[in-house]
Amino acid sequence: MAKDSKDKFSTEGLKVPESLGVIMDGNGRWAKKRLLPRSAGHRAGAENLKELCRNCGRYGVKYLTVYAFSTENWSRPQSEVDQLMKLFVEFFEKYDPELEEEGIRVRFTGDIDALPENIRKVCREGEERSAGRQKMQLIVAFNYGGRREITQAAQSLARDVAEGKISVEDITEDSLSSRMYLPDVPDPDLIIRPSGEMRISNFLLWECAYSEFWVSDTLWPDFGYDELTSAFRDYAKRDRRFGGLSKKEG
Ligand code: FPP
After folding, report:
1. Which residue has a Cα nearest atom 10 of ligand 1?
2. What is the pLDDT of residue 63?
3. What does the pLDDT look like over 9-25, one tens digit per residue?
């Protein structure tokens, strides 16, 4: 593990979000620019995810949720889907020792039950193996779609109403929240999207209601420590009002 300078992760002039979301976009364009196959971009993206975990852990982020595969990504060519599944398996085989060294617990969010058994096994084993790690939680959104998450939460409440366990009046923002995939994970304070796109792409739709956004033109495999630090510097200047008034006004 490379040594970091003493003040590399100083938080002076920055605000580190407790809960951070990252949409890892731009792997394909990164590869295209280098005349490489898209698979090389995804591989570089996975390598960069490991770096992001390390940097976020050292800065003091507590929950890092990354968008690795959406419910819509199945529409990509089969060869690319297969490659992303393979990369997913490899990522935890290859990098778990480093995640362990950094005290990073791994969890998954998404329609995991609908994934092939070999992928579900990686999820189960990864969660079990890392359950005691305390520094940061890495939450990998895989086969994740915000609309599917909300739909499944609604179905779960509707089932309870149909079975007479709860009444319609028991359907509240809090009870719906409690049926999301990982209700104990705080909503993201900040969501970062590299690669120049300014959309949410079905990521954490319920949870992002009051998230701050930070976008950058850098393609995901090149998004490193400097950009992360800039995002945290900018986040320190945000006045989060949650629909109320600013502290200065109130
Ligand atoms: C979007 O970029 C990225 C993805 C659909 C996959 C993200 C996956 C990784 C970063 C690596 C895999 C991580 C794990 C945990 C296995 P894009 O391909 O749409 O890029 P483009 O918009 O430039 O084409």
Report:
1. 45
2. 99
3. 999 999 999 999 999 99
Average pLDDT value over all residues in the chain = 96
| Mutation pick for ligand 1 pocket among 22, 23, 34, 42 (CB with most ligand atoms within 8 Å) | 42
Model confidence at 243, pLDDT cuts 50, 70, 90, reads confident
DSSP 168-206: GGG--HHHHHTTSS-TTSPPPSEEEE-TT----TTSSTT
For 17-234, give the CATH class. Answer: alpha beta
Query: Domain map of the chain by residue range?
Result: 17-234
| pLDDT score of 250 more than 90 | no
Rounded CA separation 115/189 (Å): 29
Whose tokens are 């058994």? That residue is: 117
User: Residue 60: which residues within 8 A CB-CB, separation 6 or more?
Assistant: 9, 11, 16
170-211 pLDDT per residue, tens = 999 999 999 999 999 999 999 999 999 999 999 999 999 999
Q: Between 38-59 and 225-235, two packed helices, what is the crossing angle to 10 degrees?
A: 50
**Quick one: 40 exposed, middle or buried, by C-beta within 10 A (0-12, 13-18, 19+)?**
middle
* CA of 92, closest atom in ligand 1: 15
- The better pLDDT of the pair 227, 2 is held by 227
| Residue where the block lists tokens 């362990």 | 100
Query: What spacing in Å lies between the alpha carbon of 65 and ligand 1's midpoint?
Result: 14
Q: Which SS3 state, helix, strand or coil, does residue 248 take?
A: coil
Q: Are the beta carbons of 83 and 27 closer than 8 angstroms?
A: no
